[in-house]
Design brief:
The chain contains 8 helices and 7 strands, in the order βαβαβαβαβαβαααβ. The chain is an alpha/beta fold and 260 residues long. It folds into 2 domains: 199 residues, NAD(P)-binding Rossmann-like Domain (Rossmann fold, 3-Layer(aba) Sandwich); 36 residues, no CATH class. A 7-stranded parallel beta sheet has the order 3-2-1-4-5-6-7, sandwiched between helices. Helix 1 links the parallel strand 1 and strand 2. The two termini are 29 Å apart.
């Protein structure tokens, strides 16, 4: 199926690894020009070179820590007119006890998980509206549907972003600009595997036992590949998806058991 995004410019945040890298690769295969954004310049350069070599697409990269306002402003200035934005904090979830959080910690989580996305959306959506095409996908997490202990700052920031997006979509939808969020679950990214390895070491048990335990959380009883998460992201950016907007789409193998 032709997704109608050939020659469109896609900016993919957290694009040097995991879900972001897989999405960037898929956009490139669909004929889009791709800019990947992440913190590590060397890792970015290697990722961009590999995608370009595999697909023949135009792939550029931009090093930025999107939890920093100055870096967000630099990205907006360097790449002012994309057609597609994949907004992702690129920060692995970690458990933080409420008693260990001070005001600075709360503010940082909101910079990384709320302002990073909303500033880019506010920066790019007006141009998309003026040009009559835009696709924005925010990468969140399935646990905003069922809050977990130790994730208060992440829940708070991600839910604030979901609320802001729910309002904003009503302003931009008439201009063929969509904004959706995907809520991945257990995706076999390097970050998740590293976290599971750390847990196995801390418990003194084999890695396979820890992975088997977390797999029980979803009906599919497996970790998904980054490509499975990326396919959903890219599909939402298709030209044919202009009537799908304001949605929070869970992609977690059945871990979330609610109806809505």
């Amino acid at each position: 199926m032709d997704l109608g995004i050939t020659s469109r410019h896609a900016i993919v945040c957290a694009g040097s690894s995991g879900i972001g890298l897989a999405a960037a690769h898929r956009f490139a295969r669909e004929g889009a020009a791709v800019t990947i954004v992440a913190r590590d310049p060397a890792k970015l350069a290697c990722a961009a070179e590999a995608i370009a070599a595999d697909t023949g697409a135009s792939v550029t990269h931009f090093a930025a820590d999107l939890s920093a306002r100055a870096d967000r402003e630099a990205l907006l200035a360097a790449h002012p007119a994309p057609d597609i934005l994949v907004a992702s904090p690129g920060i692995p979830q970690r458990s933080v006890a409420y008693t260990d959080l001070d005001e600075a910690a709360w503010r940082w989580w909101f910079e990384a998980h709320f302002h990073a996305a909303i500033d880019l959306i506010h920066g790019y959506a007006p141009g998309m509206c003026a040009r009559g095409f835009g696709r924005i996908v925010n990468v969140s997490a399935n646990f905003i549907k069922f809050p977990q202990a130790g994730a208060g700052p992440s829940h708070a920031a991600r839910l604030a972003l979901a609320g802001a997006i729910a309002s904003l979509v009503r302003e931009v939808a008439p201009r063929n600009v969509t904004i959706n969020s995907v809520l991945p679950g257990l995706i076999a990214t390097p970050a998740l595997r590293a976290a599971l390895s750390e847990r196995a070491d801390a418990l003194g048990v084999p890695y396979v036992d820890v992975e088997a335990d977390v797999r029980k959380r979803c009906a599919a009883d497996r970790l998904a590949s980054p490509e499975e998460a990326a396919d959903l992201i890219v599909m939402l950016c298709a030209a044919q998806m202009g009537y799908v907007t304001g949605q929070n789409i869970v992609n977690d193998g059945g871990a979330y058991q609610g109806l809505f």
